[in-house]
Amino acid sequence: MTPKRSWTVRTREAAVGALPPEKLLPDDQPAYVDSWIYVFGVATLAGLIVIIGSGMILSLKGPAWWHDTGVGHFFNSIHLWAVELFFFTMVVHLWGKYWMAAWRGGRTRVWVTGAITFLIAIPAALTGYVSQQNFDAQWISTQAKDAMNAIGAGAFFNVTNFGQMYSWHILLFPVAVVALVAGHVLLVRRHGVVPPFELSARTGAAAPSAAAPSGAPHADPPVGGGGAPS
Amino acid sequence: MTRASNRTLPWKGPYAPYDLVKELFVALGVITLLAVLLTILFSSPDDKPSTIAQWSTAMPADFVSTAVSELDGTSGTAEYGPPYNHAAEGQHAAFLKPQGWLGVSHPINTADAYVFEPLRSIPNDPALQSAVATYKAAPAKQQRQWAEAYGKALENATVEPSGTLKVPPGEYGPVPVMMGALLGLAQTGSLEGNLLRSNQFFQTDYTKPLLFMADGKLLEERAEEQHLLGDQWGMMNETGSYPGQSWLWLYTFWYQIEPFKASENADILVVLVMTVLSLAFILVPLIPGIRSIPRWIPVHRLIWREHYRAQSP
After folding, report:
1. Residue among B8, B44, B50 whose CB faces A104 most closely
2. What's the ipTM?
3. CB atoms within 10 A of CB B130
4. Chain A: nearest CA to B237, how far in angstroms?
5. Given this structure, which CATH class describes domain A34-194?
6. For residues A41 and A181, is the Cβ–Cβ distance under 8 A?
């Protein structure tokens, strides 16, 4: 087998072809990337990092630690508020992207991965709530079981089984969320930030394309609008 | 919006310096600070869990009443159906019966699990063993009559200073002896461990004790105080004045309105509605009309106001 035909070479060439370093981590953005709404994508990412970081600290001492110590309770509170901030910033981010119609220009997969991430994050949080080992966990699990059982999911996803829920919460769901977020961000890097609707001078209606009126064009403009934050 | 109108042209306009890595670290710092600030200001809720010992001590009549309903098969769990037993078919929506299709994966015979097996763990009590034997030997009709009569009498029961129950005289057969022993076992805290017992030494499955407690009124009373009942927007809330799982608002919303509110199949109906809405959410770019709203309602002019201002003559 020649090096050219090896799986490794093909993988490398495909990866670099799809996302060359200057596209993966560009040091500039199209001039229209100039709004506070763009902050919420990266804020969601930051929220996820804080969730994982605080969750790892809680994991070090096990699920009962935070009930008995002030330090443990502190990190549980960080974990809780990071989750709240994660969902808040993600919802604002999703609404922002909706009003930008950010799926335009071949970006459907970007929207789809973002939407699925939101939907997977919900059971990721639910499994945390039912793993708390307090009254909230007792009540939420005994209520949530009815919905799970009604659709047959209760046969293999038992919300009253602490061990199973804890496993899903600290491993399976986080892996799924992180994988989806990674795919989402890489797709954003590949396709770039969606350009603005072009306005019709006479009607004020938005048209599909987005050509800029003036200014120095980028030396190597990426198809679809360049790289961008999510 | 047509498929063609979903296209965008390559950007040929100006670019501005943008430090993505710096932006991520700044965002991480801000989110961390916000989380710490919220932690210092509000901490996080941690209401202690209820125990069967607390329940049986604080509400002995309710505990025994629940145990009797487990014994005669009239409790919520006993009549639940899959995945716990075959007592009901489970919820359905038209021809969809996934609860029944998936079958009984976590079998619970409530009389055995919550009454007979715990009582078997009490040693050296001939009167109790005789009572259990009498109950088991009686015809089903007789068992039901004893249990129903005792269950009704519990409505007028009084609690003795010792924590035991005093019930008006009646034809209860061996049930009072069995229930007295079970109450004593629960009040000592031994019943919790008994319900967790399985073939394994280490235990992580709390299904049996949780379902037993959920059949009683203690959890419900605590939940009502904390505004956690289904008609109080249920499980999207958590104890205290915390935001809870506010992202479940739409899911919880359906339970507040008809026809879901009064339906025996509310859970599967709500999940089906949410499944359809979730699919629509994922497929927004492909749904005519929904994907065109951002063009019709120009919020984008606000988002890209600097860009459009630069375009203006």
Report:
1. B8
2. 0.92
3. 12
4. 9
5. mainly alpha
6. no
